[in-house]
Amino acid sequence: MSHPVIVNERDGTRFEQAPGDTLLRAALRAGVGLSYECNSGGCGGCKFELLQGEIETLWPDAPGLVERDRRRGRHLACQCRAVGDVRIKAATGPEYLPPIRPRRRRAVLTGSTALTHDLREFRFRADGPADFLPGQFAMLDLPGVGASRAYSLSNLPNADGEWHFQIRRVAQGQGTAVLFDDLRPGAEIGLDGPYGVAYLRETSPRDLVCVAGGSGLAPMISIARGAAQAGMLESRKLYFFYGAREPRDVCGEAMLAELAGFGERIVYCPVVSTPGADGWAGATGFVHTHLPQVLPASLANYEFYFAGPPPMTQALQEMLMVGHSVPFDQIHFDRFF
Predict the structure, then answer these.
(1) Phi/psi at 266 (nearest 5 deg)?
(2) Taking Cα atoms as reference points, which of 250, 237, 229, 251 lies closest to residue 301?
(3) Would you identify the CATH topology of the domain 5-96?
(4) CB proximity list for 258: less than 8 A, separation 6 or greater
(5) What is the DSSP string of 148-207?
(6) How far apart are CA 7 and CA 182, in angstroms?
(7) Cα end-to-end span (Å), the chain
(8) Which of 22, 161, 237, 306 could form a disulfide with 211 if both were Cys (CB 3.0 to 4.6 A apart)?
């Protein structure tokens, strides 16, 4: 049985779509650098135009499309499957070429550990090596949950097939309800990855700045661990900012303290937006506003990595690029929708 063939008229690339894949996943598996960010329907980074053929839309109301997009006949590659051969017009770029082509595997939950009142680390094991780059994410297919969920990895690539995720419980969230309430060690899930373009750039000569909000902790911890493992912190510093809502949400210091150079070459800066009456003596307010106060050099001298909710990532991106003229190629981020 032949698979649908997708042709991108913008650059002439061709790729096949295997059963169960979306257009985006099929492209990345084929090594085609289709534009994207979240792979979950939220960001709108994978918009395309359908020129010929028929597609199936998995999530018609995905927030990554606004009404204007729908009127113009645009679609999301992460939420569409080709029914037969199709021709599309989609943006591509070398920055979206997958450094490691994603693949599907089965994984077994081996255990989990509470990090805060609503943040938990889940550890899975799969056959074969865990191939990914620090800062990337995977798509998890959970029992009883209709759509895949994107979660960032917190550990480092390894030959043992260990995939670790730090996940925050979401109110009325179907995926996190299964993870926190139903899944037990020994349970099997589907794991597809890696995905994501906000991964560690080991060749950058600049000091690193990681900014995490909420469950954005996971990819930033992975990047910090990756930088330490690669020897980057022998000649560079890493500033790690964590934005929390309340003091009980603060997390990450114990993980960073395990890395060589903590307190000297690794600086941890937690910021709480709503300190309340808990006796919090640290920094308060929005985390992005503290970067100019803490960082000793002009912000354009750093390599930035950040992950968290869209309001945080948008405010941070605007501050860096508009307020401090930081080049876009020094900014790597994931928005958590």
Answers:
(1) -120, 120
(2) 237
(3) Ubiquitin-like (UB roll) (3.10.20)
(4) none
(5) -EEEEB-S--BTT-EEEEEEE--TT-HHHHIIIII--TT-EEEEEEEE-S----TT--SE
(6) 42
(7) 37
(8) 306
User: Topology of 207-335 in CATH?
Assistant: Rossmann fold (3.40.50)
Q: How far apart are CA 261 and CA 85, in angstroms?
A: 54
Q: Which helix (H) or strand (E) holds 223?
A: helix 217-229
State the pLDDT confidence band at 8, using cuts at 50, 70 and 90. very high
Identify the helix (H) or strand (E) that includes residue 221: helix 217-229
pLDDT digits (tens, 9 = 90+) for 33-46: 999 999 999 999 99
Which is nearest to 252 in space by CA: 204, 213, 281?
213
- What's the topology of domain 103-195? Elongation Factor Tu (Ef-tu); domain 3 (2.40.30)
Tell me the C-alpha distance between 153 and 169, whole Å.
16
User: Collapsing DSSP states into helix, strand and coil, what is residue 226?
Assistant: helix
CA atoms within 13 Å, Cβ hemisphere of 249: 21
Q: pTM for this one?
A: 0.96
**For residue 125, what pLDDT is reported?**
99
| CA pair distance 330, 233, nearest whole angstrom | 18
Q: What is the pLDDT of residue 276?
A: 84
Mean pLDDT value across residues 249-263 = 97
Structure tokens at 169: 């419980």
Residue found by looking up tokens 């139903």 in the block: 182
Buried b / exposed e over 225-253, threshold 16 CB at 10 Å, is bbbbbeebbeebbbbbbbbbeebebbbbe
Query: Which pLDDT belongs to residue 1?
Result: 60
| C-alpha to C-alpha distance for 163 and 192, rounded to whole angstroms | 11
Q: What is the mean pLDDT of residues 69-82?
A: 96
Domain boundaries along the sequence of the chain: 5-96, 103-195, 207-335
| Whether 247 contacts 275, CB under 8 Å | yes
DSSP 178: I
